[in-house]
């Protein structure tokens, strides 16, 4: 029967989570035949390759949540992985800065959350902030020493190579025939058929669509949010990583300053609704995908609940002056001329029917299928433990097949 299948496990999606899953499967069960289908011509072309490159410590996430567990564990493992394979990285630490009095209780809550998650956190006053970042202003801050930066695209490439899986690029999935007694047959846009005993859905921005193609109801919808970045023309203004105190109502971390592994400084992102799943600027509009977002009841409930927040994000998207004002809260010396537009990213945010933004990683199973349905930031940081968990579930399905 084994010879009637092209592979044992078929992974859809060649981002860092899909490739980490393939890597984990072949490590846990050598000899397992794994194929990865990726619609782009190379790995990590979307969320993985368009984020700020930060290895998150896990300080933000609710104790006991998958994000907290996997980010804290994943940060340590990611640094070791990069060191083992010679991938550019650095453990830099970062500041989280309160610039207004109402933010101080939230900053203190982060101190407690960090300690509950086992993360060393140092509290700072204004003078101590200047010791780390002379140009940054704030009432108080915390320093998180375990935060770092790396080249996540290089990590994804190494995972692909080290997994030993067959990676097929330019292979867009258009149809899935999933049969609980047999497995799944997947057809790609070029007419190829791939038969597998178990299917893993790591399709990121398209994961809910892939879930529906298998016949499973994901119970959520991906609502894409574009994050727009600038490059700082005067990188000497920022030494490392500087974040604002996040709004607890949103899973976004706000406009922050990030000195990357290349030495440049990125500023951003803001968060505005994208008009396509891969809508990296306002000119990219895909009516079918936009219709999917607008037809989902949760999208309208988000809009009604958080329209003031959204209006501010939209204003910063359309006005460099407004964006500059937001940045000046942390970095008073910045001017509009210092902000050079950079490549944007799109966050694959899962939204429930009632308008709840899914705050934790979300992994569901169907017959012979594992779906990763919510894996935005800090999924790149957490990709190694996420991959092991998805691999565990896939191999359990394989054993029962």
Shape: globular
Poorly predicted ranges (pLDDT <50, ≥5 residues)?
A: none
Nearest-angstrom radius of gyration?
Answer: 21 Å
Class inferred from helices and paired strands: alpha+beta
How would you describe this structure in keywords?
401 residues, alpha+beta, 8-stranded mixed β-sheet, 11 helices, 26% strand
Tell me about this structure.
It is a single chain. With 401 residues, this protein is of the alpha+beta class. 32% of the residues lie in helices and 26% in strands. It contains 11 helices and 22 strands. It has helices at 16-28, 66-85, 104-116, 126-132, 152-163, 207-214, 287-294, 297-305, 307-318, 320-328, 383-399, and strands at residues 7-12, 34-38, 54-55, 89-91, 94-98, 121-124, 140-144, 148-150, 166-169, 173-179, 183-188, 193-201, 221-227, 230-232, 241-244, 256-259, 265-268, 272-273, 339-341, 345-351, 362-366, 369-374. Strands 1, 2, 9, 10, 11, 12, 21 and 22 form an 8-stranded mixed beta sheet that branches. Strand 11 (183-188) and strand 12 (193-201) form a beta hairpin. Helix 1 runs parallel beside helix 5, helix 2 (66-85) packs across helix 11 and helix 9 crosses helix 10.
